[in-house]
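Collaborator request log, item 7. Partner lab (contact: R.S.) asked for a structural prediction of Ceramide-1-phosphate transfer protein to inform their binding assays.
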Amino acid sequence: AAAAAAAGAFSLREVLEAFQRCVTEQREVLLEPYLSGWRGLIRFLQSLGTVFSFISKDAVAKVSLLEEHCGGCQGQQYVSLQSMVQHELAAGPAALRARSDSGCRTVLRLHRALRWLQLFLEGLRSGESRTSVVCTDAYNASLAAYHPWVVRKAATLAFCALPSRDAFLEIMNVGPREEAVAMLGEAIPYIGDVYSITQELFAQHKLLDLP
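Returned to partner:
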């Protein structure tokens, strides 16, 4: 599996393990495994071809920006989402709103996309509708609200060309279909947990609408 990961292939197990490591006993979200989980999710999006490139390109840019924050001279302030929010808010809400490269704004963009992925994976797991329907419903319930009409239109058209659920389960790289479905069942609650802690933290500090 390590070789496959090194070669840039997607593995759902990697994403599961990263999101498992994300939340500490104090319910803090650690940025290193968060970004690691995102790198896996980006590989998932990229393995589907250009359909999701409008989301994956943006996610790639956001992940690199956060990596710069984590590896920079203020790196110790970016160990967890909680420490990052505290650090960036110390300059005052107005200063934070004025910055386009802040960690908070960057995480918020990833956070919205994570909701879409969470809903999409949930739909794939349950297998009640066609993938194009699952993906469109997930998109409309999450990211669509933040995209201009022309992007929404293009996205919805692209989703019509999505491969079947079986093809998706194969992309998960975890063996037979049943195993992929079981692992999705394991991974989704961890992703959901990270999502709700972030949502709560950002709501508490009034950061959910950072421009």
